[in-house]
Write a structure and sequence with these properties.
- The protein is of the alpha/beta class and 641 residues long.
- Among the domains are: 187-256, Alpha-Beta Complex (Oligo-1,6-glucosidase, domain 2), CATH 3.90.400; 559-638, Sandwich (Immunoglobulin-like), CATH 2.60.40.1180.
- The strands form seven sheets. An eight-stranded parallel beta barrel has the order 1-2-5-11-12-13-14-17, surrounded by four helices.
- Helix 1 (4-17) crosses helix 2 (25-50), helix 19 (457-463) packs antiparallel against helix 20 (466-485) and helix 20 (466-485) packs parallel to helix 22.
- It is globular and about 75 Å long.
- The chain starts with a helix and ends with a strand.
- It binds alpha-D-glucopyranose (2 copies).
- One alpha-D-glucopyranose (GLC) is lined by residues 143-144, 146, 183, 250, 286-287, 328, 392-393.
- One alpha-D-glucopyranose (GLC) binds next to loops.
């Protein structure tokens, strides 16, 4: 490690030896100040990764030029945004934050038409918009766009680079933060780097992991998890033409990048800053757990994976500090937590809460949810969860087996039960999901389906059972209520605001048929929107329930920057938490995860200092010694006078 003086000298040496692009006096000052401020982190992190190399300094020089060029090319609009966000660093913890994730084509048709949907988004209160991967990708199967062939080109089916730039500006003008995918674990095999590497071009041959020795590949396979076991066993693909194996954690056409090569780090940083300069404010770090590999490890969440992400973040702090990182670590909760840090990922998906809300609905018991969130919900107050109920992927049951064990739950058996339950195979299940990636060796499996179908609406409508329908609607409301109030940015997945059911049309498409996740990637048709606007429809009810809660969230600061305490209810069906902000404003949420009425003594409200709070949702003030919660009821309690 370098000391302070050596770091200063190193910076000076870099600046003396490279030619930086032309900048205005003011911009030059900003850039050099930021570079000086973050250089100790930058060089430290790079040194951890590449310090052993004789050419370390060369790559450092090149990186500084990449940063300077990106900064020079950054529009004034985004530079102003940088300043704005730096002066209010906790902006993303506001109660006004509300996210939505959409596919450009499925939601709007193309980028131009998406721009016309801004009023729709605003009418919902959306100010954070995640556009699913929209980059150039292989024809046919591209893993829903997660096989990127060119980070700088827009998929021509969605429009042009100019359309994207215009959309980014329009969103920003309307106060909507654009979030894009940073798919940096792999590229598609059609990316020019991959094509050059395949041809043996010396500049690119170490951009990916190639092996000629089958033995070595099998050694790695012994310790690595299989992600898509029904597509292909193991983590490698044999390339017949060049007689080599290439590392492919996901599909065979998604080649893992080799970050042990500093040229890859520099090249991807360049691509990342290109995305930042489109004007996005968030980058979703796709599959970030897999980016560093070491023999005889699981090759997931290794210490250097963290260093690598921190290093990317440092680059952003220098060249585009308005941009946040969102971690997509769908792994063990203790590992999820390790990515959440101001210096690493300011935002993170909350897969634990997502999975356990579903778990509690299936079991009608909240003990695993309560115990797990007590342990894992609290994160740095400079960071924020991105809470979600459904997304474009499957549901994996990523809870901590040790926590389950203490409650007498066997993790393995319980996951089997949950898979059975949510694929509707368990007797009495309300759910209608589709199994995904059953692993013949481990018996592991995940579940796909839309919020409404998994919560029971599809099955209840088929059975024409009005009570079952009522319960399904209330389950949806219950999950939405937690998502909106427990603390973090709520992320609504396209179509869930409209109560859209599973979409089986993917079975007719040869490129989608094998990937059940398409069952929850529906086209958002005008009819679906109209149905949700039609009074008396189930979809209208779902939509109205959601809108009511969104309006309450926006108007009460306790939903924003506040601390969450998960409470013990001593009632197996109830789940409770209390939010308190710096001004002492509080909200107590009580949720019933069962279809039977539950009661709890009003003394649970003592945390609010009054047993007579008002429920924001119904407007009713509590009376009496016991609080009653009907089937799947939710109370948002606040002392109002
Ligand atoms: C992420 C995406 C998923 C994709 C995978 C590979 O997990 O959410 O859809 O298959 O990464 O890019
Ligand atoms: C694995 C990955 C997760 C991804 C999913 C896609 O579970 O850990 O990141 O979303 O596969 O199916």
């Amino acid at each position: 490690m370098l000391n302070e003086l050596q770091t200063k000298q190193a910076l000076q040496q870099v600046l003396d030896s490279v030619e930086l692009p032309k900048l205005t006096k003011k911009d030059e000052k900003v850039f050099l100040e930021r570079l000086a401020q973050h250089f100790p982190s930058l060089i430290g992190q790079l040194h951890t990764l590449y310090g052993e190399r004789y050419d370390f300094f060369l790559y450092l020089q090149k990186l500084v030029v990449v940063l300077a060029k990106a900064f020079a090319g950054r529009k004034r609009k985004w530079k102003n945004l940088d300043e704005k966000r730096l002066s209010n660093p906790s902006w993303y913890r506001s109660e006004k934050m509300l996210g939505m994730a959409v596919y450009v084509d499925l939601f709007a048709g193309d980028l131009k038409k998406l721009q016309m949907k801004i009023p729709y988004l605003k009418s919902l209160g959306i100010n954070y918009l995640h556009l699913m991967p929209l980059y150039k990708a292989p024809e046919g199967d591209s893993d829903g766009g997660y096989a990127v062939s060119d980070y700088r080109k827009v998929d021509p089916k969605l429009g042009t680079e100019k359309d994207l730039a215009q959309l980014a500006e329009a969103l920003s003008d309307e106060g909507i933060s654009l979030v894009l995918d940073f798919v940096f674990n792999h590229t598609s095999d059609e990316h020019q780097w991959a094509e050059q590497a395949r041809k043996g071009n010396p500049e690119f041959k170490d951009f990916y992991y190639f092996f000629t020795d089958k033995q070595e590949v099998e050694e790695y396979n012994q310790t690595c998890r299989e992600i898509f076991p029904t597509v292909r066993r193991g983590s490698f693909t044999f390339l017949e033409d060049v007689e080599k194996y290439v590392w492919t954690t996901f599909n065979s056409f998604q080649w893992d990048l080799n970050y042990s090569n500093p040229a890859v780090f520099n090249a991807i940083t360049d691509e990342m800053l290109f995305l930042a300069n489109i004007g996005c404010e968030g980058l979703r770090l796709d599959a970030l757990a897999f980016i560093w590999k070491e023999k005889w490890t699981q090759c997931e969440s290794l210490p250097k994976a963290h260093t690598l992400i921190q290093c990317f973040n440092t680059c952003l702090q220098i060249a585009a500090p308005a941009v946040l990182f969102k971690s997509e670590a769908i792994v063990h909760p203790d590992e999820v937590a390790q990515y959440i840090d101001k210096q690493e990922c300011q935002l993170s998906y909350n897969p634990l809460m997502m999975a356990l809300m579903w778990e509690s609905l299936a079991t009608r018991e909240t003990k695993l949810l309560t115990a797990s969130l007590k342990k894992s919900f609290e994160i740095s107050d400079q960071c924020s969860w991105v809470n979600y109920i459904r997304c474009h992927d499957d549901i994996g049951w990523t809870f901590d087996d040790a926590v389950a064990e203490q409650l007498g739950i066997n993790g393995y058996e319980h996951r089997r039960f949950l898979n059975q339950f949510y694929t509707g195979k368990f007797d009495g299940s309300f759910s209608q999901g589709v199994p995904f990636q059953e692993n013949p060796t481990t018996g592991d499996c995940r579940v796909c389906g839309s919020l409404a179908s998994l919560a029971g609406l599809e099955r209840a409508i088929e059975a024409d059972d009005s009570q079952a329908i009522e319960h399904a609607l209330k389950r949806i409301r219950l999950l939405n209520s937690i998502n909106l109030s427990i603390g973090g940015i709520p992320l609504i997945y396209q179509g869930d605001e409209l109560g859209i059911l599973n979409d089986h049309s993917y079975l007719n498409d040869e490129f989608k048929r094998e990937d059940a996740r398409w069952v929850n990637r529906p086209q958002i048709s005008p009819q679906a929107v109209a149905l949700a606007e039609t009074k008396g429809s189930y979809q209208h009810r779902i939509n109205q329930d959601l809108k009511q809660m969104i309006a309450l969230r926006r108007n009460h600061p306790e939903f924003g920057n506040a601390k969450t305490e998960i409470l013990e209810t001593y009632r197996s069906q109830l789940f409770a938490y209390c939010r308190t902000n710096a001004k002492g404003e509080q909200l107590l949420a009580l949720c019933n995860f069962a279809e039977s009425t539950q009661s709890i003594p009003a003394s649970i409200c003592d945390i609010l200092g009054s047993r007579r709070p008002r429920d924001l949702l119904s407007g009713n003030q509590l009376v009496g010694e016991d609080i009653l919660l009907a089937a799947y009821d939710v109370l948002w309690l606040k002392v109002t006078e």
